[in-house]
Amino acid sequence: MTPLFPIPKNHPERFILHNEVHARAPFILNLPVMASHLALLLTHEEKQHERQHLVSLCERFGVTPPAKDADHFIASFNSFQIRWEQHGEFSTYSFYVHDDTPAEIFTDPALKKVPVDWLSQLSGQVIVAAHASITSAEAIDYNETTDLSVLSAYFAGNPVIGSKVTGGAASVFTDFRIHVDGFSRFLIINNSLRFEQAGRLLQRLFEIEVYRVLALMAFPIARKLYPALNKSDRQLYTITNAMTMQDKNDAVLLDELTTLAAEVENYISSNQFRFTAASAYYQLVEQRVNDLREVRIQGIQTLGEFMKRRLEPAVNTCQSISHRFTLLSERVSNASQLLRTRVDIIIERQNQGLLTSMDLRAKMQLRMQQMVESISIVAITYYAASLVGKISESLHALGWKVNPELVEGVSIPFILIIIAISTRRIHKIIANTTE
């Protein structure tokens, strides 16, 4: 295609990044509507299988399947609509059914329209299963002035939590409990919802439920790690207390400290992802609750208040355990550094003593060498003088007028001088070579 304007070429991912804000757009729903939502934890292999399983559903109804690299999919089938999203560690399925004359609320959910054999072969483990219904106040004889206890009949008599949302366009009620059918429930009363608002509202409610559970997945881990954290803390105190005593073996303490550091780092590396994910999911829950723009209904808790009172303490516990493990790791590292410094100082003192001993031994060897050298000079002089005497005797025998004894005696000083000069030159050569 010929460009309209002479601008540089596009970045390879320009259009992908630009269209990312339009991904996972909410449904535009016709009201009233019933919805069912499933969130499944999946392994990598199960993610590959679920894509093929979704294709099989599309083939059954003659619907165009999702692309091979797609991570979300929206389609309409004969009697229901489906919205599928694949996330990092889980996938979600939302099913929508539009019916102007719905049966009793929550007794005829949207999931009943989905083929049973296909549902039974879904991969993964269910972490969230929820039904939702958007209906009018007249359909359930609801009146804001009446006693809200009539709504608890839709939630098996449990206390109801709810509020007005989206600027009063709807009222949301739930009990945040799993009912006998294995599903939680959301009842939305339509006051003046627009089609676009209905889709966004249902998506936010389902996301609150999913992210709430995912944020709490770190809580059992935190409770399990609490005794181990206290044990490691006490062990570190015992080691640091022993470091203050003079009669303790630093090498043994260093081994214990290294073992403790390995255990603490193993705890952190094994569970850091779950704790970090819990904080991220909790932030998403808070964001989705804020997006609801809740207005209190007198006499019941809002969704935000319920989350703050029940979810926040658990998340704070997870964050506290994670933070304490991080601090414990830093304390172990500091103690290790102090102990290694002390061990290094001791080793340096031992090395210094060893060097002093070696220096003294070298000096003694030098003195002995000098003594041996002096004796050697005397011996060399003796043998050289004897050699001169022998030569003088030979000359005397040949008729030379020399006195062998006199020549031998006179040669001794000269021999000593020559040997001394030679020894000094040798010492000088050795000194120049070692520099």
Question: Can you describe this structure?
Answer:
It is a single chain. The protein contains eight helices and eight strands. It folds into three domains: 190 residues, no CATH class; 136 residues, Methane Monooxygenase Hydroxylase, Chain G, domain 1; 65 residues, no CATH class. It is α+β, with helices and mostly antiparallel strands. The longest helix is centred in the C-terminal third of the chain and has 95 residues. The two termini are 79 Å apart.
Structural class: alpha+beta
Main sheet properties: 8 strands, mixed
Count of folded domains = 3
Uncertain ranges = none
- Give me the number of helical elements: 8
Rounded to the nearest angstrom, the distance between the terminal CA atoms is 79 Å
Note the main attributes of this structure.
8 helices, alpha+beta, 435 residues, 8 strands
Secondary-structure topology with pairs:
Blueprint: H1 14-19, E1 33-41, H2 44-61, E2 72-76, E3 81-86, E4 90-98, H3 116-120, E5 125-136, E6 161-165, E7 170-174, E8 184-190, H4 195-216, H5 218-243, H6 250-292, H7 303-397, H8 404-434
Parallel strand pairs: 5-8
Antiparallel strand pairs: 1-4, 1-5, 2-3, 3-4, 6-7, 7-8
Helix pairs in contact: 4-6, 5-6, 5-7, 6-7, 7-8
